[in-house]
Structure formats: structure tokens, C-alpha cells
Amino acid sequence: HELELYFQPQVNIQTQQIVGMEALIRWKHPKWGMISPADFIPLAEETGLIIQIGKQVLEEACRQNKKWQDEGYKPFKIAVNLSTKQFLQLNLVEMINETLQTTGLDPQWLELEITESSIMEDTEYAIDVLNQFCTLGIQIAIDDFGTGYSSLSYLKKFPIHALKIDQSFIRELPYDHDDKNIVLAIISMSNSLKLSVTAEGIETDEQRQFLLEHGCQEGQGYLFGRPLSAEDTNEFLKSKYSLQEQLKSRTSNPLP
Predict the structure, then answer these.
(1) Cβ distance 116 to 150 under 8 Å?
(2) CA distances from 187 to 21, 22, 192, 197 (A)
């Protein structure tokens, strides 16, 4: 019971309103302190424990999002990462559907993030599973887009809703010429395929402004909020909700 979920906001880049939260696993070890997922997730993959961990993350993320909705916050999606091993589980669709029913979360508020490499392991299987997700009403995003090896000819066949631009392409914006061209190409392709696009790792207003000017709809990064525990996320949501209510009040009741 040392694993804990943290949540990082995903926002509309133009309005900076929250459109989602990404669920991120952390390990609070009693002796070693906070252990990075980069250190323990590969081991979990190797040992097969990632299946059990992934199920726990999915259940807790769905339960927490339903709780926020029940507390009166405007509904937003909860994004959960699926590892390659998880994605290749034979009972994956049944497990996720059962989790949604148990937690009471409407499928439209769950987004599954899958890497390019996962869906390219077995493309026929991937298309079948993704179609089943779409039938349930679940949103699908391709995570870390641009770092894998997916074929563009296959991309149009996958029933997906969003692409997430890897933070390695965002870090040097708007100054690195190559990164600019890659990001612009991904945004243009996403718009052509009628896919939403989210930029990861936004840390400066210059990066936000560049992405906004070139049609990127959503963003995630330290500029908008760091990953927080569920308790701290509650306080973050309260402050955001309070600010929005104040702005609404000022708009509807302008000063004379």
C-alpha cells in the first residue's frame, strides 16, 4: 500500500480551463522516500506486476474522477496510461468495462493513453481492441507521439481521438528550428485527421503562445500545474473553481 496516485491537469491552452487530469503513479517508500516511476515501472513490466499495478491505477483514477463529479465539479476526463503488457491482456476490455461499472464513471470521462509501440506490436489486435473501447464510449490518445515508429498509413486506420506531442519536442520551443517543424507537422496532421492534440511539458508562456497560435488545443506541464496528490488536487480544484466563479460574477455584474 505504498503506491499513490498523483494528478496533473490538462488544460485548454486558450482559456486555461481544466479539461482533464492525467493519473500518475508514485511510490512513497518508508525508507527511500519518493521513488520515480522511471525507476520502478521497468521492473514492474519485467516481473509482470505492471498488470496488477495498472488495474489498481485504473480503479483509483476512475473512482477519484467520479468523486470529483459527485462533489459538483464540472466533469473532465481522467487520463490513464496503458503499458504494452497491459494493452496485450486478453481480458483488458472486460476488465476496464467492469471497472467503469463498479466505480460508476461514465466511459466518456475516461481517456486511455497508449504508446505508438504498443499499438504497432500487433496492428490487427490493436484495431480490434480500440474499436471495442470506442464502442464503450472511451476516449483513446496516442501518448509520446513522434518518438515511436508508427506508420502514418496505419494511423488513419486506428480509431483514436487524440495525439499527445512528446515533451522532448516542446522543451526548446519556440527557438529550435527542427522542433518547431516537427510540432507544426503533428498539429497539421492532427487537424487534417480531425484529432485533438495535446502538448506535454509546457513550462513557459512562450511555448504556450507558440502552440496557441498554431492550433494546438490542449496542454499539460508545469506552467499549468505540477502533479499533485489527490488531497492537494482537491485544493487546486477548489481554488480554480472559486476563481472562475469570481470571474463569472464580475462578468454578469459589471461595475457601474
Answers:
(1) yes
(2) 21, 21, 9, 7
Q: Give the model confidence (pLDDT) of 79-113 as tens digits.
A: 999 988 999 988 999 999 999 999 999 999 999 99
Residue with cell 488545443: 217
Kindly report, residue by residue over 10-50, the tens digit of the pLDDT: 999 998 899 999 999 999 999 999 888 889 999 998 998 99
Distances (CA, A) of 4 to 28, 114, 147: 7, 21, 28
User: CA-to-CA distance for 109 and 180, rounded, in angstroms?
Assistant: 31
Q: What are phi and psi of 117, to 5 degrees?
A: -65, -35
Cα–Cα–Cα angle for 216, 247, 218, rounded to 5 degrees: 15
CA distances from 114 to 72, 117, 179 (A): 30, 8, 22
Q: Please return the burial class of 231, using the count of CB atoms within 10 Å of its CB with bins 0-12, 13-18 and 19+.
A: exposed
Per-position b or e across 44-83, b if 16+ CB within 10 A of its CB: bbeeeebbebbbebbbbbbbbbbebbeeebeebbbbbbbb
Distance CA 67, CA 85 (A): 29
Task: State whether the Cα torsion 125-48-230-37 is positive or negative.
Answer: negative
Q: Using alpha carbons, select from 109, 61, 83 the residue that is nearest to residue 227.
A: 61
Of 207, 160, 162, 215, nearest to 184 by C-alpha is 215
